[in-house]
Amino acid sequence: MKKVLHIIAAVSLAMATTCATAADRPLPEWLKRATVYQMVLRNFTRNGNFKAATAMLDHVRATGVDVVYLTPFVEMDRDMDEAGWSPSQKRSGFNSPKNPYRVADYNKVDPEYGTFDDWKAFSAKAHALGMKVFLDLVYVHCGPNNVLKDLYPDAFQRNEDGSVKMTRWRFPYVNFDSKPTRKYLIDSMLFWMESGADGFRCDSGDMVPVEFWEEAAATCRKINPELVLINEGNQPKAVEKAFDANYGWPWSVGIRGFLNPVVGVQKYVKGKSLRAIMDNARQYEARLSANSLMLVMMDNHDLASLKTDGPNRFDRILPVEAGNAAFVLMFLRRGLPMLYNGNEIADNAPTSFFAPVEHTARVWMSIDWGRALQPAGQKRLDLIRRLAKLHHDDPVFYDGTHEWLKDGEKVNCVSFVRQHGNRAMFVAANLRPTPATFVPGCVSLDPQKKPILAENFKMDSGGKVHLGPYGFVVVALK
Hints:
Layout: H1 2-18, H2 29-32, E1 36-39, H3 41-44, H4 50-55, H5 57-62, E2 67-70, E3 74-76, H6 87-91, E4 103-109, H7 116-128, E5 132-137, H8 148-151, H9 179-194, E6 199-202, H10 210-223, E7 228-231, H11 236-241, E8 245-247, H12 249-259, H13 274-286, E9 293-297, H14 301-304, H15 314-317, H16 320-332, E10 336-340, H17 375-393, H18 395-398, E11 401-405, E12 413-420, E13 423-430, E14 436-438, E15 453-459, E16 465-476
Parallel strand pairs: 1-2, 1-10, 2-5, 5-6, 6-7, 7-8, 8-9, 9-10
Antiparallel strand pairs: 3-4, 11-12, 12-13, 13-16, 14-16, 15-16
């Protein structure tokens, strides 16, 4: 035990030294303890709108959620010219121009989801239940007919021949050299804050100049000092300059892909051992300052959206216990855990955020809430509630140091130690459907100590940890 405490202390000192030049803005205390829930309105309910989602907020809060993060609900570009549709939008087969990430007006609620008053009612109820609300900002690009085009002649980036410069998604790049455009976008943030937004997740944030985010953060935090900005990106300078969290892509995609090699995004994990995946994640995490968080997840709107290259939901393929093991790691590691639409009930319905509300196929792409009444869904929901409570209430998990232990990775188990003051917790999970045994070096486990959480777990007097298929354990150290 002393050895691991010395290691953790050394890591903490190194991280403190590393972040000495980073922004000194402390993280909002509530954010450290938060669980985020990504809500895709189109898929969250059969109706797919704000009114139906508002009626479900009691369930979301009872799950242990502190933040509802909404994918874009602003007015979508309805241009039928498919040259301006993203490749994924075309492949979805819905033949609809309405892509939530192809924005026509940043300051209007798309009628598909309801009215501005419906949005305000949603936000008001979330706040009344004690939750924050984050919105998705899509600023790197916009729809070809976005109102910016007519407001400012320099709103879009241009190629040398004068044509509009397009992203790989075939949408116009927003021009951040245009001062009027920058002001318009920051004013839009202030507009949504005034009507109920407590933070923003910034789509492809690394593709927007960090100087813009600095300006936006400084302006908006004059109104709300605890406004949260989450970067969908990896750049350390983003959290040093403006953001509270980057995406924990290397860990999230790595663990998700290793959990089931059939699920998409395999190019990041194909042929790699768990040790290699974890080493990649550790290298990335070492680049970030201690005064930042990583948003970690097992699903999101991109990862879970129906693809042509294979299944998109691990709960469609694997037993509920597989996801449970991964969620134990996700909630209790250092980070900001995020649930995606229905993860809490092991939802296994196919899903696509390209499915417009009026399309008949969208109904079977919405969450199957009947899973909440089935054994798999009930088992998942019970575990998620317990994990969210641990993450929220125990300083070991929301404010403690974190040290990865590598011994179990040879047998496909991830393990780590969280410490706060004189308390330390050992967490381990087996990510394979076969039993695994390992000795966690640097720590001393007491076979007589009762775990806080455990499934398919045994420990012998010699200090060996035995985890059955998808087994896990959370136990205090001596």
